[in-house]
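Fold this sequence, please.
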Amino acid sequence: MPLVISVAGSTRTTSCDFQSLHITQSVVSNAGGAETVIHVPDRSWHPAAANEYIVMTSSDSVKHFAGTITEIQEEMAGLTQLRYRLTAKDYLYLFDRMMVTEIYASSGPTANLNADTVIADITTRFTTGFSTGGIQSGLGTLAQRRLDYVYPSDACRGIAEELQVLFYVDYDKVVNLRTPGSDAAPIPTIDLDTFSSSANWSNCVLSEAAANIKNRIILQGYKTKSTVAYQNVFTGDGVSKFFPLGYEPSGIATTELVATLNSVTLTNKTDNIDGSPSTTAGSTAQVFICYTNMGARTDFSPSSTETLSLTYNYMLDGGTQVDDAAAQTEMASREGGDGVHMYAVNDPGLTNYQSNDNLAIARGQGLTARYGRPVLQAEFDSLEQGWKPGQAFAMSSVYRMGGFDKTFYVYQTEKSLINHPGTTGTPMWRYHIQAGATPLPL
């Protein structure tokens, strides 16, 4: 199963310096990539930035890397020879060509807050050429959210962190949302006290850090929906068409906003989306809510005998605190005191158009789960083939780090070739693995 290297759809295997091939796979944001050197002895062609770049084995079509060349450096390797150093990123580069603008709510055109449905909708509507086949169902429901020009990978990763699951795009352009540790590692159990030459791992370094502990999260800077309704009443003057509300309505659904003209209910519309102030297409049965100027607009001028009433839930400044009591207790046992380590998040993106702080609470819980206490991490080398991020394995020791027996999750793998067998045989990779005892990386 020899390796095949393709650039922009053309096979360039014989031009590749295999000793320079280095591939990184990671669940860390935008960390997946590859580096290699291509030799072109006759200057007959050259790779270009934005070309597709694929590394695969020929007989089984397994892709070891697939993505886009993001940078090339051309060097002279002789009078007529050119050498190119390529840097490539995985398919997240193409996944993020467009940006997401949508409200995911409990009502309206995207009225579904199941995580799998939302990720599938983002993939289908805001990306091109990607499959939703790797999205697990039943991972949980989400808090309502408004996404204003957010890259698809950032939107999907935010959802994954809210649910404490993994999001990634694989080398076949399949979008994955799945439980950490769904796949077993090639070595299911590592006992650090019984290493032997047949164990196929080496150079294990353990670490634990307390420099970035966060177990009390203060969340602010966002808005949340009021639990009570507010009413504005205006008397027409035969001229005015815009009526300032003073507050931002939480939405235009009839459950959130009721507008009446002389007690006759109007149809709620969104200004500059369902209608423009420069036209008079609207009828006397419609009202347009302007979120920019926090007001209501009509395409007619109510007379002095007409009363316009708007009763609505409004958005107000939000704030909440999330504590991880167990993490605080553990830190107190290690360092004394109450064990509390505070951290503040100021993020307008946590605005929730429901009567709760679900988005903010989910962010706080995600932070405390990952940073609430020191996390045991491991780095080691392995010649066992098939390591990849998201896998799980057991690691234990009676002596090291005071003794432990934990499940570890692979965060990142870096691999380079030990040998390339040419036209027959199977390539052998040397792996460097980074893993930790929590499902998501720090």
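The mean pLDDT is 89. The first strand starts at residue 3 and ends at 7.
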